[in-house]
Amino acid sequence: MEAAVRYEDYPGVGRLATPKLGLIWGPTADFDLKLSWGRSFRAPTLYQRINPPWVYLLEGTLRGEREAPPGQTVILIDGGNPDLSPEKASSLSASFVLHPQSMPGLEASVSAFKVNYSNRVVAPIASWSRALIDPAFADLINLLPGAEAIASAIALSPTGLDDQTGFGTPFDPTSVYAIMDARYRNVAQDRIKGIDLAVRYRFELTDAGSFELYGNASYLDTSRKLFPASGPIDLSGTIFNPPRFKMRSGLGWSRSALMINLIANYIGGVTDNRLTETDKVSGLTTFDLSIRHHLGSKAGGIDIQATALNLFDKMPDRIRQASVIYAPYDSTNYSAIGRYLSLSLTKSF
Questions:
Q1: Looking at the domain assignment, is residue 276 inside a domain?
Q2: Per-residue pLDDT reduced to its tens digit, 38-83
Q3: pLDDT tens-place string over residues 306-339
Q4: Which of 168, 180, 240, 266 is 20–30 Å from 98 (CA)?
Q5: Radius of gyration from C-alpha coordinates of the chain
Q6: Which residue segment(s) compose the domain that 260 sits in?
Q7: Nearest to 16 by CA among 27, 5, 8, 24
């Protein structure tokens, strides 16, 4: 058993003592049980607090109001917030680790975890195109603002209004449909829970070499409440947020100076919920292959390795684009690099 307490004092921000507890129990030589609990405290960064607000004028049809008439605009306020409070969290995890004596090369584990954040510092509007159609963001949106509200919003920026509509016409306050406040803020609650699985098995076959099988899988469920009275918003499994399921597995073989590894990667699909009509984005499965050969001391201790990442050149699903300047895929979760080949030489001294 382990226990620890950390005390933090940030002048002008806050102070807090955060405890942590850990327990490992091995009732037999075949498995262990692990349990950990703790609290944490994080002050907002200097960037999050003092970065000045920036105010943009955007085309309304790109912000989720698909039926907005031509010429309608939206004002977006982005940047820091000097009134941010520290965020706090409590975490709990439990693990079961199996390493049976009867199978020396086998090790498997399953872990469950839960993290509750309060006052978490985030940029609350992750998807601007959904902000105007999702009631969860209602408190951050000022619909049909008056001239005074528009002037106050523009006055927040040290450089004034940044017109990104591309209309090429003078700013018309009467065309503003809404003001969106996307500055950093403390949200009421973030909840993260999930399960991790891991298996690894090493064994040898006479005259056939050494083998290693391994796999990792994770399931994640996250939600957020922007305000105490608002309902939770699902984050996991939605576009530009972590998918609910990920997996990585592999097979390794080695014999004498030769090593070969084949790895399969899977990133689960997500839902594109930026507009009223949702769209499914398929997951991505890729394979990696590496071959390594040690040339031995007579060749100067040189290793030669060939690697192919994304062996079959798989591409992520295309998504709807609000503008041609945005990537046509979920760049947060998937890679569009495609097949990548490399050859390396390594010399040991």
A1: yes
A2: 999 888 999 999 999 999 998 877 665 544 566 788 999 999 999 9
A3: 999 999 999 999 998 867 778 999 999 999 999 9
A4: 266
A5: 26
A6: 237-348
A7: 8
